[in-house]
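dumping this here so i dont lose it
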């Protein structure tokens, strides 16, 4: 199956399902998706990867109340990974859950939380029956999608296109040997791929024209002091900006932090800010020390070409667009 491509137009609302693993940048992406022109956020699936499931779901509940969007269902994936994220990374959702802007809201999360794969299957089935295929925005591992399609491959017909933040093509990966045992800390893998390289393999070999946003492009989008200062200034008037400022202030001591997920998210409505993608076949190492390394195959094979974004055409415009979207109270 080849995924359809095309930019969002003002005449059409694009149905989107957001799959993420509850890091700070992904909560900001959730806010952006509710204020972007022409986007209809149908549901959110949280993956227990770069987070801790319970506080991640609590934070999600608080955030949906903050945005007055409790109509959007949020569910927890039952997916299990191959390589667990380091605990120091996974605690960011705990800190986000305790931000001052979210404190007034009481989390409402059932025990157990709603099933993420069941939600995704339901939305894909509805998309097929209503002839309105959906866009999947994935900023975490691909495992939930593989699990859903493994049970019912026909649901793939409900997908219009896929957008994925993952991989590192021409740059080093982000497996840090100070937080990961050096027997597996290869320099090529990126965490969303490393968490479950087998799922990535299945998706890359099933679908073509995935819109991929690897570290190559997100490396150029740091959480700069100028960006945070602008959010702080806007936060005096707009509560979305204030929450984003509080959130990104949590990572001031993490110089490696980037707008990974926001980079992929903003392409939905502002593709003009990006240089055109490079179509290229990709494969992933599934076993051994280089596990999780996504690269071009050494020889022609059955791999499908994906659309890889390597750079912005207007990085200043990108930051400005994020600020414009967050200059709101969400009402």
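and the seq i came up w/
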């Amino acid at each position: 199956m080849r995924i359809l491509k095309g930019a969002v137009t003002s005449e059409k609302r694009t149905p989107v399902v957001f799959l993420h693993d509850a890091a700070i940048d992904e909560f900001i992406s959730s806010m952006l998706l509710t204020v972007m022109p022409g986007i209809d956020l149908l549901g959110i699936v949280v993956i227990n990867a770069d987070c801790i499931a319970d506080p991640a779901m609590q934070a999600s509940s608080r955030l949906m109340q903050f945005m007055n969007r409790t109509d959007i269902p949020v569910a927890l994936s039952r997916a299990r990974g191959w390589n667990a994220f380091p605990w120091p990374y996974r605690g960011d959702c705990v800190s986000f859950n305790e931000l001052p802007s979210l404190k007034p809201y009481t989390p409402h999360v059932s025990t157990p939380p709603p099933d993420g794969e069941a939600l995704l299957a339901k939305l894909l089935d509805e998309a097929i029956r209503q002839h309105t295929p959906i866009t999947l925005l994935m900023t975490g591992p691909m495992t939930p999608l593989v699990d859903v399609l493994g049970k019912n491959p026909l649901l793939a017909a409900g997908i219009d296109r896929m957008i994925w933040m993952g991989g590192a093509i021409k740059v080093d990966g982000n497996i840090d040997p100070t937080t990961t045992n050096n027997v597996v800390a290869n320099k090529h893998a990126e965490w969303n791929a490393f968490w479950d390289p087998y799922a990535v393999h299945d998706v890359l070999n099933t679908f073509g024209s995935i819109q991929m946003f690897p570290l190559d492009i997100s490396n150029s989008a740091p959480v700069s002091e100028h960006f945070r200062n602008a959010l702080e200034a806007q936060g005096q008037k707009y509560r979305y900006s204030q929450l984003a400022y509080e959130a990104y202030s949590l990572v001031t001591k993490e110089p490696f932090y980037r707008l990974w997920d926001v980079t992929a998210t903003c392409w939905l409505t502002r593709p003009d800010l990006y240089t055109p993608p490079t179509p290229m076949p990709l494969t992933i190492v599934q076993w051994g020390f280089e596990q999780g390394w996504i690269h071009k195959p050494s020889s022609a094979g059955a791999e499908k070409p994906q659309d890889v974004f390597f750079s912005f055409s207007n990085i200043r415009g990108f930051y400005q667009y994020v600020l414009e979207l967050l200059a709101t109270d969400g009402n």
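The beta strands are 14-20, 39-46, 74-76, 134-138, 159-165, 211-213, 278-281, 283-284, 294-295, 305-308.
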